[in-house]
Design a protein that fits this description.
CATH architecture of the largest domain: 2-Layer Sandwich
Mean pLDDT: 97
CATH class of the largest domain: Alpha Beta
Number of helices: 14
Radius of gyration: 23 Å
Distance between the termini: 54 Å
Low-confidence stretches: none
Structural class: alpha/beta
Shape: elongated
Bound molecules: L-homoserine
Helix content: 25-40%
Strand content: 25-35%
CATH superfamily of the largest domain: Dihydrodipicolinate Reductase, domain 2
Number of strands: 18
Length: 402
Amino acid sequence: MANIAVLGYGTVGSGVVEVITRNHDSIAKRAGEEINVKYVLDLRDFPGDPVEKILVHDYDVILNDPDVSIVVEVLGGINPAYTFVKSALLAGKSVSTSNKELVAAHGAELIAIAKENNVNFLFEASVGGGIPIIRPINQSLTADEITEITGILNGTTNYILSKMSDEGSDFETVLKRAQEKGYAERNPEADVEGYDACRKIAILTSLAYGKQVDYQDIYTEGISKITDIDIKYSKKMGTPIKLFGTSKMIDGTVYSMVAPFMVDSEHPLVNVNGVFNGIFVNGNMLGDTMFYGKGAGKLPTASAVVSDVVDEVKHNGTNIMMIWEPEKMVLGSMDNFACRFFVRVKDTTSKDTIKELFGEVEFVEVEDVSGEFAFLTASMTQKEFEEKSVKVDMINRIRTTL
Ligand code: HSE
């Protein structure tokens, strides 16, 4: 029997206990032995809850119990998660976590400590919730050089953008409703400003290329500046707006960013709507592959956490090789990233000025919008675009996959 401890009895922690309880027999069969939750750590008490009997408030009880071979960390945030996880690995216990902040900031170090101690540090649930993506990158796509990873990695923003498009409502109205329904946090900044997606694409990129990608180096733009008028244009063009976390290898350099894109109808991610996540990977031998599913939520996330626990039970005494060296990866400058831009300008700028400045453009017309017009540029680098766009009265601009 493998004894585990769950750190944090919030949404995901209670999900982990539920998954292990409800699927006890099938999980035991797959793991090769029974999995028993010996402790749950939380600062709170849960009177009447079945975990009451195994609840502890002092982490040392878990750390000093040699019967606990696996620690599940679902506290979120860096502290005290980092201290708890590091000490568990040093004490010879494997760790499964859903904590993207922790993995993005300390992944390379914790993987190295796990290796030195012949245990495992696994984090399937840190990206894409229940969608298998970490294990496929680490274990399945090993014959390929990965040329692109692009994901809709945040359910909250995908829900907001989908609703804005379905209902024609503005950002603030939809955000408020998403908060009421529990799809968005009371403080939505990490989601709507793209910080959550940024950590997730940093993790995927670090794993895909085997080096440390610092999330602080990734250009990040959220969705809070997307308006109902942008959505109107996007519908007219048949190019829904999606928040992408994307990394592309171009001529040996990796370019990484988080930003809203207008997505063309042929793109594999165009139909990923609502709270769902989708991750598209291109390998130089495999070609395109897609991963789709629930990127958040109690049971989907817990399912991924428990799948790591099963892997850790199966690999007791063996470190599963994972390449994520501490050496920092230098990302390509965003100045050189090229795409076609969708641009809205005030009609104080003339269309002739736009043609003179940008050359070949396609103008886009929508009804019931006055005082402005919009156009689509040819493909150009970010630097070229910025040099030209400072000369016009720009309202907004959105990158496109066109
Ligand atoms: N806030 C995140 C999302 C939760 O909306 O996708 C999962 O990481």
